[in-house]
Design a protein that fits this description.
2 copies of one chain form a homodimer. Chain A is mainly alpha-helical. Chain A has 10 helices and no strands. Mean pLDDT of chain A is about 90; it is low at about 1-10 and about 200-210. Chain A binds a DNA duplex through α3.
Chain lengths: ~210, ~210
DNA sequence: GTCTATACGCTGATAGAC
DNA sequence: GTCTATCAGCGTATAGAC
């Protein structure tokens, strides 16, 4: 297996090396705790080139941001092109997010677990980006088709994806030891069938007006 | 109404002024975009005193962090002392979180919407703090009592609170225009009764193993 | 115990050689 | 087009006066 030797230098383009290094550093230390010099060392690309190509640290973060959003959008697009119900599409997206959380942890961490507004104040929040809007649209179509219960778009969308996103956060924060892929089936059941136990207590539910 | 005039200086203690100013600044600009000088100006407390009392910017952030966690813990404690089912307790906590998101936005934002690990790397993540563990325990007791469906603790807890937390995030990011308190009833129904529509499609649910 | 003025280090950014 | 050496500015932290 001669190709496994380190003698052959990686043909990876400069951009890719910088973005990969930046992703790892930003996720591990946080954007503000990483200097351009750190990116330089990690990527083995000189500071001058980084400024030439990206215009600075913010430029790197922005390029990374849109690169990952595009990848995510392609993922959602692939799900849209598959022949299945909207309900199944929701499940598929959750399954893919869980898989990515395990296999490409940093990508998910940068997309779902960072506060971009702090270092990219001029960019819109990630939840208003195309792939997230597409996810909401899938939900809306599911409602129209009668596959998903009716309700205000945001409430329904948050109820469907909120639990999964919460699990991802807990997993990334190290509170959940088990791979999320193991929890998928159970989570999906909880989400679609509701959290009620044996005892029916609907009439006693707490209302916001009560004290 | 003589007390409404500005002539009478606020008797607020120094600590309180600093923490209030820091909360507002941190939430608006992010921890790393706020200098100690900014806190000084906003709180009208001198830099020397800030360093004397808190030991620096990190100290302020840490004090604020634990102060808010304590407040939150008291809130959860109050819910625990009330006579109601664990299921109602979950609802009550969500109702309170929604109310706080509207009336004390910055507190919720700092607790649920910041990445503390970036500026307080030695502190445990917020979801492992006492009040969050208490919330999970309420869920566990609800499962034992048969009020809540059985399952792995984290999955069940994430399914119950994940949607609410997601709504809070969306509201704080400006995507939801309506006050969350208006969405409470609908969200609670979604969460307990599940997201299934009219058509029963359980058999076709997507499994993680499938492709 | 409270404040002002100052120093030091780090980081983002650039200019100019190759 | 790529890199190295250097600069300027900001932000933390402190020392010392009141």
């Amino acid at each position: 297996m001669p190709y496994l030797t380190k003698s052959a230098p990686e043909p990876e383009p400069l951009d890719c090396r910088v973005l990969t290094a930046a992703l790892d550093l930003f996720v591990e230390h946080g954007f503000h705790n990483v200097s351009v010099h750190d990116v330089q060392k990690e990527s083995s690309v000189s500071i001058g080139s980084i400024y030439k190509h990206f215009g600075g640290k913010e430029g790197v973060a922005k390029a990374l941001y849109y690169h990952l959003i595009n990848e995510f959008e392609e993922m959602v697009n692939a799900v849209l092109e598959d022949e299945m119900t909207n309900r199944e599409r929701c499940n598929k997206i959750i399954a893919l997010l869980f898989e990515y959380s395990e296999t490409r942890r940093n990508i998910i961490s940068y997309m779902l677990h960072s506060k971009h507004r702090e270092f990219l104040p001029s960019e819109p929040p990630i939840c208003s980006s195309t792939p997230f809007i597409m996810m909401r649209d899938i939900v809306l179509q599911g409602i129209e088709a009668g596959e998903i219960r009716n309700g205000s778009p945001w409430v329904v969308a948050a109820s469907i994806f909120g639990g999964a996103i919460r699990l991802i956060h807990l997993r990334l924060d190290g509170l959940i030891d088990e791979p999320l892929t193991n929890l998928y089936d159970e989570h999906i059941n909880c989400m679609w069938q509701g959290m009620s136990g044996d005892i029916s207590l609907e009439s006693k539910d707490y209302k916001s007006s009560t004290n």
